Amino acid sequence: ASCVQYRLVVRDASTLQILQLYTCLDQIQHIEWSSDSLFILCAMYRRGIVQVWSLEQPDWHCKIDEGSAGLVASCWSPDGRHILNTTEFHLRITVWSLCTKSVSYIKYPKACQQGIAFTKDGRYMAVAERRDCKDFVSIFVCSDWQLLRHFDTETQDLFGIEWAPNGCVLAAWDTCLEYKILLYSLDGRLLSTYRAYEWSLGIKSIAWSPSSQFLAIGSYDEKVRILNHVTWKKIAEFEHPATIANSKTIVYKEVEKSPSVETERLSFPPTRTLASSRFSTQSKYDISQMPVSLQYIKPATDRANPKMGIGMLAFSPDNCFLATKNDNIPNAVWIWDIQKLKLFVVLEQMCAIQSFQWDPRQPRLALCTGNSKVYLWSPAGCVSVQVPVEGDFQIVSLSWHSSGDSMALLSKDNFCLCYLEREEV
Fold this sequence. Notes:
Strand 8 (73-76) and strand 9 form a beta hairpin. 2% of the residues lie in helices and 48% in strands. Among the domains are: 1-107, YVTN repeat-like/Quinoprotein amine dehydrogenase (Methylamine Dehydrogenase, Chain H); 252-259 and 276-424, YVTN repeat-like/Quinoprotein amine dehydrogenase (Methylamine Dehydrogenase, Chain H, 7 Propeller), CATH 2.130.10. A six-stranded mixed sheet has the order 26-25-31-30-29-28, with no helix packed on it. The protein is an all-beta fold. It starts with a strand and ends in a 6-residue tail after the last strand.
């Protein structure tokens, strides 16, 4: 699905044929599929309205108007039949049921980066709350929205919460001004508290491994720390230096290559596709000789949100690799071997990394750098692919299909689908 101002366009993912065209009341600011792909939510925050469309019954429609309370966020519950709307100033979360048309209210939600978290099986929801100048977490049962547990957290200013994939442990971390991460059980017991250091900027990003055995914490000191699920103690610390000297690490460096054009294809005037391919810079990967010096940027520490520390990290679906990005070295992606707890590969790009994401089915990483190329890495090697489109197509983010057979590449104004052929076994 994609939106063009107030129009919602639903296409077939394999053919790009338009299946449905819906017209909303105002410019769409957020769209989200229900978990079973039968409904799609369109939020118009400026108007305080959410419209829901049905793929099975195009004539059926639903409009939710928050009125004077306003709207700042909207999302689906895991069952795909309830919508959670957060009102302006985070006064409350309203839970709307599409089945019974009933409404439930959750008071005092906290305005933080990640204030709502669902378990992977969809049974429980945790909500970060702020009341009487203290942080709390409430855990609800998603089947009937009854409160299961309510407890205060030992945080100065709770910044985010996230469940482990197995739904047994909830991680809650403090603002970047204080390095503190707390781990709670489903019944609200504090299992462990981890602090790496004090009196300096702290946690910037976290990621659970798919097996729930490891918790990776990226921080402003340019390091990733791995905690284990048995003792919640640190078992590894990954540094991101500007110089790589270990001969066992492979560094792939992106370099320019001039496109080869056969003489029989040359014509005057050149065709549009030939002209665009002639003048677009193509690239390939070379393996660098050790030691390798990466481009390091010294951040402006006197400004808010300095570009420093581990801003992105993600585990591969098979639990074998961890990809990280150090914002001080914006052109590099670091890939760590989790079985050996060592650096495995570094990809050094010509431009700054905009986004990366693992294939949901296998250890294959896709990344983009704001140009018209998509880059793929797997343990077999890496490749640079030019997107065959006319004009300026700068990829700023990408998203894998759940099958791993295709991915959506998004620029500021356009998108295209990239299809990957499966290898015959």
